[in-house]
Design goal:
The complex is a heterodimer of chains A (about 250) and B (about 180). By secondary structure, chain A is an all-alpha fold. Chain A is about 80% helix and about 0% strand. Chain B is an all-alpha fold. The chains are: A mainly alpha (about 250), B mainly alpha (about 180).
């Protein structure tokens, strides 16, 4: 009963977010996020339909949907990074660099070894999901920390997307760790309940954050040209800093 | 059980960190002073660079220690110069960060030239942070007079191959005296 209520609530919140985005005219501003949400809602409905019409195909469809959502969450991280640093030419690709860099390192050193060493396919899936969720949370923490270092305000929308995704992934990680430890028999009923509840938590945060369009605020202050003549290009100025620092190092 | 507790704790900790980091910063007077005034910054033009060269120049230290013979005073100078060097490097980093935070209108999504430019700017930014982080570490650990780049002056003697006619050419008797 709790699971059904949670799933119903998830759909209500998801549709509300899409309607608010459409009315506010900012669907295209967060194209990855709204695509992810649409995919989540539509494939959920398709899953329910398959369960009624052809239940033998449901496990295959479930895992296909599950893994595409796991991969799509990385695209959400790219979008969060893009929005955070978009206004600053020197940092424009920082979000992508951090996302791909951390994901690559964690994939090689943290996710793949445990996946390959797993004793059974069940354990392999649990390890993969748990570790990829933790990797995504690490990426979010690093992105938000980098934004804070550069005094970039996250803004209500991006901050909300990051917070909702972190809440979902944090619950997910703990849930999968508990499932791995206690096993399917003992933890199965709780496991199937926590999943939909975590979706309700994150969708509630997203609904509040995306009620209206509030982009990342950029610095309104104009800074004097440092390290070069006024009007010199940013590349020249940054290059001058690097050259002078190198000169100091080589002294 | 330990792994479960560890994963749960890490997950909750990360959530708490994101909540804390995502809070909007209060624009207090310190931030305004730091942004508006040039006192905290350093530039690469005019007297600032010569100031840096003086901070990192060991002549005064060597003169006090070796020629005048005031070793304790030389050590005191070294300590104060270390602090000055660290402050100067941090000021340069602040100044660089200020420059990096200069906003501009984002280019169109399909603009390869702008993408290349952004990549180059990011490379310069990361390079600067890497170098200045290394410089701060070396100054903190070894002081401002330590060579920031290790010397490879001994390399040529190893690289020079003795010719068949003069098998002992690379050996230098003066080194063994």
């Amino acid at each position: 009963m709790v699971v059904q209520i949670a799933i119903g609530l998830s759909y209500l919140l998801g549709v509300t977010i899409l309607v608010r985005g459409g009315k506010g005219g900012f669907l295209s501003k967060f194209s990855f996020f709204f695509s992810y949400l649409t995919y989540f809602l539509v494939t959920g409905l398709v899953g329910l339909l398959i369960l009624q019409v052809a239940p033998q195909y449901f496990p295959t469809f479930f895992w296909f949907r599950f893994f595409t959502l796991v991969v799509a969450e990385f695209a959400l991280l790219v979008e969060i990074g893009d929005h955070l640093f978009m206004a600053y030419p020197a940092l424009r690709l920082l979000g992508r660099a951090l996302t791909f860099g951390i994901a690559g390192v964690f994939l090689l050193l943290y996710i793949l070894p445990s996946f390959l060493a797993a004793r059974s396919s069940d354990m392999a899936v649990l390890e993969l999901v748990k570790r990829s969720a933790l990797t995504k949370v690490v990426i979010i923490v690093v992105l938000v920390a980098a934004a804070r270092y550069y005094r970039i305000s996250l803004g209500r929308n991006v901050g909300g997307i990051a917070l909702g995704l972190t809440a979902y992934l944090a619950i997910h990680t703990a849930n999968f760790a508990l499932a791995e430890h206690f096993g399917r028999v003992a933890y199965g009923p709780i496991f199937s309940m926590v999943g939909p509840l975590s979706q309700v938590v994150s969708l509630t945060i997203w609904a509040c954050a995306l009620w209206r369009y509030a982009p990342v605020e950029e610095h309104r202050l104009s800074f004097p040209a440092v390290g070069g003549a006024p009007g010199a290009s940013l590349t020249d100025q940054l290059g001058r800093y690097n050259a002078a620092l190198e000169k100091l190092l080589r002294r | 059980m330990t792994a479960v507790l560890t994963y749960s704790a890490i997950a909750l900790l990360m959530l708490a960190v994101v909540v804390l980091l995502a809070r909007p910063r209060q624009a207090g007077p310190i931030q305004e002073i730091e942004i508006c005034s040039d006192e905290g910054g350093a530039s690469w033009e005019g007297p600032d660079l010569s100031l840096a060269e003086r901070i990192f120049d060991r002549t005064d230290y060597l003169w006090l220690r070796d020629q005048v013979g005031f070793a304790p005073l030389a050590e005191s100078l070294l300590r104060s110069r270390t602090q000055m060097a660290l402050q100067w490097l941090r000021a340069v980093r602040r100044s660089f960060d200020k420059l990096v935070r200069t906003p501009a209108t984002p280019p169109g999504t399909h603009n390869p030239a702008a993408a290349r430019e952004s990549l180059n700017l990011l490379r310069l930014t990361l390079r600067f942070h890497l170098i200045i982080g290394y410089a701060i570490l070396v100054v903190r650990l070894f002081g401002p007079y330590h060579r920031l780049i290790p010397s490879f002056g001994w390399m040529p003697s190893l690289l020079v191959r003795p010719s068949a006619s003069d098998p002992y050419r690379s050996a230098d008797a003066a080194r063994f005296s």
